[in-house]
Amino acid sequence: MMPPSVSVVVLNHNYGRYVGDALASAVGQEPGDYHLAEVVVIDDGSTDHSHKVYRRFPGIRVVRKAHEGFAATLTRAAREAAGDWVAPLDADDAFTPDKLRTLAPHLADPARLLIQHAEYVVDADGRPFAEGTHPGGATSTLVVRAHAARELLPVSNELFFHVLADLGHGIRVPEPLTRYRVHEASMTDRRTPGVFSEYMAGVCADLAARLDQLGVRPPAWADAVQLADLAALYRRRSTKFRDDAHRQREQAGNSTSQEGSSR
Questions:
Q1: Is the Cβ–Cβ distance between 119 and 133 less than 8 Å?
Q2: Is 62's pLDDT higher than 90?
Q3: Does residue 46 lie within any of the structural domains?
């Protein structure tokens, strides 16, 4: 039998400062019972020096497109992957050298459609940002069976792939196999009150709608009842996120008013 093949797909928009580390971590994976089919960059209309960095890695494939944002870039990543599995990698993150070798036994399991692993959290300069490790769940900590990923498209963010674990087709690996970078230029705004919760409310609503669509003609890994139940769950989560966003904005407004009245 052929070993499972993996496409590492790097998602980049103007992360020229970091993308070299991401690509080096992808092409530098330790050998194991898997086949690294390709390393691909989906360049989302970068206008910085990212293209000069790509030239340092002659074996990679670069897919250039107009700037459309994260959702369209992640969707394109799943469509471009030629391997049995797609390992998405945000350009400001990096894999540990042993990631694919460690995951190889799970890649060979036909029952698995999603693998999630833990991560190290580092700062802009790659230094530890938090003690210990984090359980993961973000883009760079997921490896998804390519055919299942494509059946979920189009996606709004990596939460769509978590559906596979929700339905019992995933596994969580405790080893930290990604360095997740926290910095001021991160695409997701987690500092402005309400913004991230509002974003997640939209993602959950999009996911619920996609699950409704899949329920009309379910894929092999789910049935119509499971998809309907899961859609209802994500609608409830969407409502909760919107309520959270409203509360956060209200609290921020009250704090601002109190600061103004105390001056």
A1: yes
A2: yes
A3: yes
